[in-house]
């Protein structure tokens, strides 16, 4: 696995700090993944433990991975926009990853999951939402989209328990809900379960191609 720090530029001109980890050279390439971190006003950035665990694991399974700081967070420019303009940050990461793979997935954790699921551009193959805060009723464009979605919901999530996630996504097409047992929204001690579920889901939809 090789990691490089780069600067992305959004369509509205904001510089976004990002890292790309390329897939292990001894494995077939399966695709690419954009990783979106939790709420920056509560300490979220691209080095969040959940995002970091996925970022480091995915290349070992044949996926290029890009993680980035949302605007106004970490090393990125711009100002926080409560999830609206942040969609352009996700789109910039998709743009950057596109030359590496034509099978691109979005994974977001908490706040990042909602932002990611509101970027429904054609190059995205599907979404994984880790601990998505769906209970507040915020619009989720991917909920009406036929592409595959996986919701990884902590058993004791303080912000959106499994029952709320199931009710909110009840009419969403092509949606799988997996409960992460024995943990809350912050997923302490269950990062390996998150990685295992995410990788298994991606591998089911991403046939390997030669390196």
UniProtKB/TrEMBL annotation:
Pfam families from the entry? Hydrolase_4
- What protein name applies here? Unannotated protein
User: Which positions fall inside the Serine aminopeptidase S33 domain?
Assistant: 52-165
Q: Which InterPro entries would you find in this protein's record? A: AB_hydrolase_fold, Hydrolase_4
- In its UniProt entry, the species of origin is given as freshwater metagenome
């Amino acid at each position: 696995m090789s990691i490089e720090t780069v600067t992305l530029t959004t369509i509205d001109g904001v510089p976004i700090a990002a890292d790309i980890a390329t897939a292990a050279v001894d494995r077939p390439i399966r695709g690419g993944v954009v990783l979106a971190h939790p709420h920056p006003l509560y300490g979220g950035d691209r080095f969040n433990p959940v995002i970091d665990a996925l970022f480091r694991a995915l290349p070992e399974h044949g996926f290029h991975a890009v993680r980035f700081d949302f605007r106004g967070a970490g090393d990125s420019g711009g100002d926080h926009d409560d999830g609206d303009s942040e969609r352009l940050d996700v789109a910039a990461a998709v743009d950057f990853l596109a030359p590496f793979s034509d099978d691109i997935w979005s994974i977001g954790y908490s706040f990042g999951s909602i932002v990611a699921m509101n970027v429904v551009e054609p190059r995205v193959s599907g979404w994984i939402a880790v601990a998505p805060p769906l209970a507040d009723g915020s619009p989720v464009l991917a909920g009406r989209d036929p592409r595959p979605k996986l919701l990884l919901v902590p058993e004791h999530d303080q912000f959106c328990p499994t029952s709320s996630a199931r009710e909110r996504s009840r009419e969403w097409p092509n949606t799988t809900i997996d409960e992460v047992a024995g943990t809350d929204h912050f997923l302490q001690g269950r990062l390996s379960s998150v990685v295992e579920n995410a990788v298994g889901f991606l591998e089911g939809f991403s046939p390997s191609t030669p390196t």
